Amino acid sequence: MLGGERRVRATRRAARVHIGAVALGAALCVRPALTPGAGTPWATLGLLTGLYLACELPGRCLFFGGSVPLAAGSFFPLLLAAALLLPPSAAALVAVPGSLVGRVDEPPAAARRIWRAAQLAVTVWAAATVHALLGGPAALGAPGPGRLPDLPYALLPVCAAVLAFSAVLAALDGSILAAAEQLPPRRAWRGLLPRSLAPHLVHGLAGLMMAVLWNSTYGPLAALFVLLPMYISCWVYAQYHREHAAHRATIRALVQAVDLKDTYTRGHSERVGRASVLIARELGMARERVEVLRFAGILHDVGKLGVPTRVLRKDGPLTPEERRAIELHPEYGHEIVRGIGFLGEARAAILHHHERLDGGGYPYGLAGRAIPECARVVAVADAFDAMTSTRSYRPGRPVPAAVEELERCAGTQFDPRMVRALARGLERYGWSGAVTSDEARVPLPRGGEAPREVSVPDGPEGKGTR
Predict the structure, then answer these.
(1) 191, 267: one domain
(2) How many Cβ atoms sit within 10 Å of the Cβ of residue 370?
(3) What per-residue confidence (pLDDT) applies to 144?
(4) Which string of b and e fits 438-464 if b means at least 16 CB within 10 Å?
(5) Alpha carbon distance 427, 432 (integer Å)
(6) How many structural domains are present in the chain?
(7) Does some domain include residue 39?
(8) Does residue 255 belong to any structural domain of this protein?
(9) CA-to-CA distance for 254 and 52, rounded, in angstroms?
């Protein structure tokens, strides 16, 4: 316990030292602009700083619901425009006020704001320095009715500045992860630059357009025609990702609740989601429907939350009353998710994934095409993972044997089209991870044998009854 506390204290100390070092570097970057006689273009600097501050303030305002474009200090087109329009030390100042007042969702707020301000000051300074060293200001032209920008040649220093911006930002992001979370450096920096470079190039082109308009005869007002649409698009993009993050958090919470209650099938839900996606892609479904099928597979057993735990964890065969309790879980699941609008037809899959093509399933005994397509997909995925996973009451089957069993039951229990799609997907991509939390194989219950039928293909409800 004391060792863990020491590690936590050491981690916090390392993070504070790292933030202090980057903040000192940022102070050195901006210092020349504050020196008397430096010739800092205060009018341009003040206007860009005010615009950036205005981009961050909505995150602190209840009227906007506390939402900002991407995160505190994230409106990069404006920062890149500042790197193209201002000397390096002046450009480094643009992000500081906005970052210091921007929204922070997690403590410690002061340290996070200081880190973000220092990080962006250093990053913008690096981009502006590279741009200046490659002759970017001369290629961009002087403000007013003088020289026009030499756009073909101005692109090279702009691209180099964006590359420097992206590289320094990724380096600093990785360094704070390594310091604050004690991650190995290789893991902390893995993928940061490749993932961010393309979006930053788009932001750089927007910054170039803004800088060109800023220096034109139309002046800064014309530059707002680039700024406003870009800001709105960033806001919409952020709202989309925030909504998806909320969806994932909702699903993750439900799945974790099921896994905690039904330890026999821990991990089963995620694998059924993967198998459902495999089938949906082989069927050529649209991307949106594939995502819905993934949700359906992951949440197909959420109704087990309404089944008594003693029934779910029973080691022997189920009584008729216990079996009836188990067979209510699709209806329980449908009731649980009925109000979650983004699930769409996944709700029907949760309700009907135990229906059989011949009408012998539950809860409603639907047959043939009366069973929703998404439910027929999840039924095959569910049975496949149930057969290939090792459970506490029987060993898992090899993948070819499970596919053979599905093909044997196609036309009576399962839709042959879904079975063929799964077989094609497995042949193309293979399958891995089909082991539940039981990990090691254990002997079957006394008097039990590996089941032949798969009419109840998941959980302990099938023990000795399939």
Answers:
(1) no
(2) 12
(3) 54
(4) beeeeebbeeeeebeebbbbbbbbbbb
(5) 12
(6) 2
(7) yes
(8) no
(9) 40
Instruction: Evaluate the omega torsion of the peptide bond into residue 363 and state whether it is cis, within 30 degrees of 0.
Output: yes
Residues of the chain with pLDDT under 50: 1-4, 60-73, 434-466
pLDDT for position 130: 95
Q: Which residues contact 189 (CB under 8 A, 6 or more apart)?
A: 170, 171, 174, 178
Range of the domain at 276: 262-462
User: How far is the first Cα of the chain from the last one, in angstroms, to the nearest whole number?
Assistant: 48
What's at 121, amino acid-wise?
A
Of 197, 199, 200, 180, the closest CA to residue 188 belongs to 180
The tokens 């209510």 sit on which residue?
328
Q: Are residues 157 and 282 in the same domain?
A: no
Confidence at residue 451, expressed as pLDDT on a 0 to 100 scale: 33
User: Which residue's structure tokens are 């961009």?
Assistant: 140
> Residue 298: which region, alpha, beta or left (left: phi > 0; alpha: psi -120 to 50)?
alpha
What's the pLDDT at 452?
A: 33
Nearest CA to 101 out of 66, 57, 55 is that of: 57
pLDDT attached to residue 419: 95
How many whole angstroms separate alpha carbon 286 and alpha carbon 352? 22
Q: Bridge partners of 394?
A: 391
What pLDDT, on the 0 to 100 scale, is given for residue 60? 47
What are the CA-CA distances from residue 399 to residues 92, 375, 427, 435 (Å)?
Answer: 58, 22, 10, 12
Helices (H) and strands (E) in the chain, counts: 20, 0
Find out whether 69 and 229 touch, Cβ atoms under 8 Å: no
Q: What is the pLDDT of residues 280-292, one digit of tens each?
A: 999 988 888 898 8
- Of 228, 19, 216, the C-alpha closest to 111 is 19
- Looking at the DSSP bridge assignments, the partners of residue 414 are 410
pLDDT for 133 equals: 93
Q: Supply the pLDDT for residue 24.
A: 95
Same structural domain, 215 and 171: yes
Is the residue at 412 inside a domain?
A: yes
How far apart CA 122 and CA 165 sit, in angstroms, is 9
* Judgement on whether residues 137 and 57 belong to the same structural domain of the protein: yes
Contact 79, 120 (CB under 8 A): yes
Long-range interactions of 7-12: CB distance < 8 A, separation 24+: 7/182, 11/179, 11/180, 11/181, 11/182
- Residue with the two structure tokens 């430096």: 38
